[in-house]
Design brief:
The chain contains 15 helices and seven strands. By secondary structure, the chain is mainly alpha-helical.
Length: 321
């Protein structure tokens, strides 16, 4: 980049503007020895690799490796501005277009028949004129051929590519050069970046809900959530249980027909309407076939009794699941 390039103000187009520019170019007529779709291919290559006009002009068909798993273009050290050879990756969609374009060319042939003089700015200006996109905006920022490098750097930034990776792809000596002179973020780009920040209010509400375990956070606010019951396994704690030998014994205990059927199927614990005897209330475990214990989750004896509404005797046929 020359001193005049640093002084010249350039800009990047929005994604929609750039798509319009490329599509308009590809369906338009010829200019300076190449037809519109050829210029469109060159613009795509410049905006997706950061290659300069002179560097693209130096390429041959053999410079491209388009059949590899990762398509690339090789730039020789003598043709690069920084005098360092580079292997640059190419997007698969562009590789397919280039493969079709090179199909009838020899490996030693020039990839593109660009004019000897750098007329890139005039080419871009010509095809921009076919759209409503100005070559130079009210702020004095131009979009010329070299601005395609800035379009590349800006697109990397818009899509979350790290500055270190962008510097490598741009083949710059420092990240300052990449960030300061080639990355042109617009207001809508900055707004998109801000929109990715976490919503603090939602985070606070979510934390409060997780502490109570009874509310879900939704777009409309807090909604009540019924607490989930953990599956019960084993003999119920705090319920006097014994096995029922047959349906006759179940009937003698005053059970309904449905409760008797449940006992016959060995489904789960059934509660009778017979109050616990005084010996049952004491937690005596000496009677055969009985298991008595207080509910360990209720520390208060009065609360324990109230929780079972005066206490009832329960019958356990099998382990409750």
């Amino acid at each position: 980049m020359t001193e005049s390039d640093y002084k010249r103000k350039r800009r990047a187009l929005s994604e929609d503007e750039f798509r319009l520019f490329i599509r308009t170019t590809e369906v338009s007529g010829s200019f300076r020895s190449l037809v519109g779709w050829e210029w469109g291919l060159i613009f795509r290559l410049a905006s997706e690799t950061g290659l300069r006009w002179s560097e693209i002009r130096s390429l041959t068909v053999a410079s491209f490796s388009l059949a590899a798993d990762t398509p690339t273009v090789f730039l020789a050290a003598g043709d690069a501005k920084n005098r360092t050879e580079s292997v640059l990756p190419i997007r698969p969609a562009l590789a397919t277009k280039l493969k079709d374009y090179f199909a009838l060319k020899l490996p030693t042939a020039k990839a593109f028949n660009l004019p000897a003089t750098d007329c890139g700015a005039k080419v871009v200006k010509h095809y921009l004129a076919l759209t409503d996109i100005p070559y130079e905006n009210d702020a004095g920022e131009r979009f010329d051929f070299h601005a395609l490098r800035g379009q590349f750097a800006t697109s990397l930034a818009r899509n979350g590519v790290s500055l270190a990776a962008a510097r490598e792809l741009m083949r710059h000596s420092t990240v300052d050069l990449t960030a300061k002179f080639y990355t042109h973020l617009r207001l809508d780009d900055k707004a998109s970046a801000i929109a990715k920040l976490p919503d603090i209010d939602v985070a606070i509400e979510s934390e409060a809900a997780s502490m109570t375990g009874t509310y879900d956070v939704s777009a409309s606010g807090l909604e009540e959530k019924a607490p989930e019951k953990a599956p019960f396994r084993g003999t119920k704690i705090g319920v006097s249980c014994h096995s029922v030998a047959n349906s006759t014994e179940a009937e003698s205990l005053g059970l309904s027909e449905i409760e008797q059927e449940e006992i016959a199927e060995n489904a789960y614990t059934v509660t009778t309407k017979t109050p616990l005897s005084s010996s049952d209330k004491g937690g005596n475990s000496g009677s055969p076939g009985r298991t008595r214990t207080y509910d360990l989750l209720i520390n208060s004896q009065p609360l324990y009794q109230l929780s079972y509404r005066g206490s009832f005797k329960a019958i356990n046929t099998k382990t409750c699941i």
